[in-house]
Amino acid sequence: MKFGLVLEEMHRSENDLAHHLLVISERHKVDHEIYHLARDLARWSQQHVRDIADIAKNYGQDLDPEPRGEAGLMETIREKGSEMMGRRPETGMMLLRDLRELYLKACGVSADWELLAQAAQGMKDKNLLALAEKCHPQTIRQMKWANGKLKESATQILVS
Amino acid sequence: MARVDRIAEPWGTRTPYGTGGDWPVRVDTHLAEGVAPEDVDRWVQTASLLHSNGDAMDIAVKDHRIVGVRGRAVDRVNHGRLGPKDLYGWQANASPDRLTKPLIRESGKLVETDWDTAMQRIVDKSKALLAEQGASALGFYTTGQLFSEEYYTLGTLAHGGIGTNHVDGNTRLCTATAGEALKESFGCDGQPGSYTDVDHADVIALYGHNVAETQTVLWTRMLDRLAGPNPPKIICVDPRMTPVARAATVHLAPRPGTNVALMNGILHEIITNGWVDREYIEAHTVGYPELEKEVRNYPPALVAEICGVPAEQITEAAGIVGHAERLLSTVLQGFYQSNQATAAAVQVNNVNIIRGMLGKPGCGILQMNGQPTAENTRECGADGDLAAFRNWSNDAHIQDLARVWNIDPMSIPHYSPPTHVMQMMRYAEDGSIRMLWVSGTNPAVSLPELARIRGILEQDRLFLVVQDIFLSETAQLADVVLPAATWGEKTGTFTNADRTVHLAERAVDPPGEARPDLEIFIDYAHRMGLQDKDGRPLIKWHDPESAFEAWKECTRGRPCDYTGITYDKLRGGSGIQWPCNEENPDGTERIYADGKFWAHPEYCETYGRDLITGAPVDPTEYKALNPEGKAIIKAAEYMPPHELPSQDFPFQLITGRTLYQFHTRTKTGRTPELQAAAPDVWVELSADDAGAYGIAEGDLAEVETPRGAVRARVRISGIRNGVLFLPFHYGYWDTKGGHQPDGPGRAANELTITDWDAASKQPIFKTAAARITRISGGDGPSPAPTTTASAPAGEFAEGARTKGILSALADESMDAAGGAR
């Protein structure tokens, strides 16, 4: 069964999404909504990582339940960098790039949840299906947030 | 006629009445020393501009000067009563330090100039920026205290003429969540409640709404019900021991930042016990199953832990609300300026919706306003919304607005939600907003994290225009200062929280060369050469009444329909509630009476937002969810605040308004009776915390957060353990610092965090982590009033009781105008 690979991929991509949200948060500390919201939304993905690791045991997979850690030093450097760069126009372009990447990553995770839900139905695994039903809407909200912020920020950044 | 010290007795004498009865008339009057009513030359009709209640009053004029005020017995809002701010605040108009000439910055200093020079400088800058960068370089930040006519003119010139999306009002700080919560639940702004619901309600639930201090006359109405037969039960949610809390049947004092958990707990009890109106839910709403599912996760025991409130109290409060026959719910800053503002306010709507408590006498929701004309910024499109509740993401609405203004729809920015003030500050910080026009507000004291705000406003690359009546902290940083006329010196209309429109007439001339805000905006539009698509001036009106007529046309067919109102109809009588049109010629007391809402996809003001992420809901998604335009029940999970107490900062800091001062004391600080009642900043903490830290009443303490420090005298009050309170009124204009601290700070916003609710974009002033340190002993009690939420926790000496100065005596008359209304 290839299903174990799906769980592994899911675990990796949620970890990656959480990490990217935290990096964006730190890199754009002076954009306060990005800073706070990205941290809030990273928590959703971190919880997904734990949930996936938990359910993966049923399929003989040993996945790390702890979401990928953050290097304290890098965090500080990114936040300081953001504060120093905060008054320069180039940060806007970086923000658009980061949000675009976030949107695509979240889209990917959303597709992964689709796959997982389909498999769960095929295997008649109610717990797995329930997990997908709990997590997938949050992934979609992460996606929409990235898309909304992209739309909201683009005009000012691109025409100023 | 009685003479009452209305500083010591802020709510005056009781006139009790029973359920469904008429609130008796009591006419309050305060005239200048030595002036008797018969000396007055003229009485000029107006309403209060120092809070949001909309108290109607007459200005006494003698020898071309304002010499006092008298409540209007005929008015539906106040039945003749006035609050302390109304009674005394008018005196600030005549302060010797009013701005009387325009100022421009020359070699770093503000110097007097004439109007032509000042306006030309603004116009030259505007045109240069438009040519070089375009409309994205210009931002407009206005107030919650201008008139509809002025907001509409500003909104029209900024959105339709300049074409900028950067337009907001300081209503963002006070009422953005009220508007957003109504939009989320009903698809459109507009209060489902009426103040007369107080006369009928058997339960009044006040959520983060210290009405006793923010709307003293509305509280007087509640006090009179409480003193009469069949008094209503009061539910109070507030971490402070406010006058409302003292009068409450149940007082819930949750940990700051946990309102959503608390509301979910109350909803959990209501739903679990089946205290819901199934028929109403079925016929008039969408989204109920999601709410049922979400609140299942919030049993009282868990909520008690999150909120730090006994589970029995949550159950008791839910039982009272759940058994109410006529439930009035009101909400204000305790929810709006806190973590998850919109989500929490929406849950209050949900309580009334699922109980079917809408549109009937005594059954209402009042998502309150903090300022008198907050509703008008929202209606007129001066806070970023489009005029007359048009939907920025509905192309048909944009085309319709373009028709009203006779311009190309492409000229109206609607590519994304309007820019809110905190985002505008960010754009000014990154250098992409290069001219900011601030009218009638004082961001250098009122926005969060003041050191950052000062840093932004002080930048050389930002051209700052300030239009005000005094040289405020913000005006001191400006490149051009325009002297404005104020209440009593200009004519216009404004609308209170229950949709009552009042006319405020000009009673006297403004001082020196000061001009009405309307004239200033029209002058700017003409000098800029703003035109419609036929080459005619974009702004086609020239005085308040013609501006009102233009505004009425814009509202035709929209929810806030003003077309049935005229200046003449407002004169002499009482305020009128919109919608007022051919079908409702006398106005409308209760909207949504028939379970019909303004939420149809083609008509609604917004498709809504995700309550947690703030992401706009897609039009197609909205249509699928709510094709028939029913009320929308939206659930939300609890998310903890972004800054939580730690070892270094063990307290939670909340800030707020108090009874005797308004905003940054621009007017109240220049009013002898009010200033004497609350002359300086104080910090409140509980007796337990004071004991633990060895702090005594009147000691000087320093309050710190990661952003700064403030020094204040300590008041040991009835506040919740672990929480500190600072009033937000005190800035620097009357200190040596001028626009900034000279030594330790005293503005509460030195400490607050730059963070806002994702849905309403309202800054969060009530959840910063803080610490407190005793600096030195005091020589008496703190300067905090004893009549309000800042009352001392225990017994206190008679001499320490807040009293008015000699001139604070005001008249109360119970038989004025024969009780006619």
What does this structure look like?
The complex is a heterodimer of chains A (160) and B (821). By secondary structure, chain A is mainly alpha-helical. Chain A has helices at 3-27, 32-56, 72-85, 90-123, 126-159. Chain A starts with a helix and ends with a helix. The model of chain A has no long low-confidence stretch (mean pLDDT 90). Chain B contains 26 helices and 29 strands. In chain B, the strands form six sheets. In chain B, strands 7-6-18-17-16-8-9 form a seven-stranded mixed β-sheet, with helices on both faces. In chain B, strand 19 (492-495) and strand 20 form a beta hairpin. In chain B, helix 3 (148-162) crosses helix 22. The chains are: A mainly alpha (160), B alpha/beta (821).
State the gist of this model.
Helix content of chain A is 82%, strand content 0%. Chain A is an all-alpha fold. The mean pLDDT of chain A is 90.
What structural keywords apply?
heterodimer, A: 160 residues, mainly alpha, 5 helices, 82% helix, B: 821 residues, six-stranded antiparallel sheet
Q: What topology does this entry show?
A:
The complex is a heterodimer of chains A (160) and B (821).
Chain A: H1 3-27, H2 32-56, H3 72-85, H4 90-123, H5 126-159
Chain B: E1 2-5, E2 27-31, E3 42-47, E4 56-62, E5 65-71, H1 84-89, E6 103-106, E7 109-112, H2 115-132, E8 138-142, H3 148-162, E9 167-169, H4 176-186, H5 197-200, E10 203-207, H6 211-214, H7 216-227, E11 233-237, H8 243-247, E12 250-252, H9 259-272, H10 278-284, E13 285-286, H11 288-295, H12 300-307, H13 311-323, E14 327-331, H14 333-336, H15 341-354, E15 364-367, H16 374-380, H17 395-405, H18 421-430, E16 435-439, H19 443-446, H20 450-457, E17 463-468, E18 480-483, E19 492-495, E20 500-504, H21 517-527, H22 544-555, H23 567-570, E21 576-577, H24 619-625, E22 631-632, E23 651-656, H25 672-677, E24 682-685, H26 687-693, E25 700-705, E26 708-716, E27 723-727, E28 768-776, E29 809-813
Parallel strand pairs in B: 8-9, 8-16, 10-11, 10-14, 11-12, 13-22, 14-15, 16-17, 17-18, 23-27, 24-26
Antiparallel strand pairs in B: 1-29, 2-5, 2-29, 3-4, 4-5, 6-7, 6-18, 19-20, 20-21, 23-28, 25-26, 25-28
Helix pairs in contact in B: 3-16, 3-21, 3-22, 4-15, 9-12, 9-13, 9-15, 12-13, 18-20
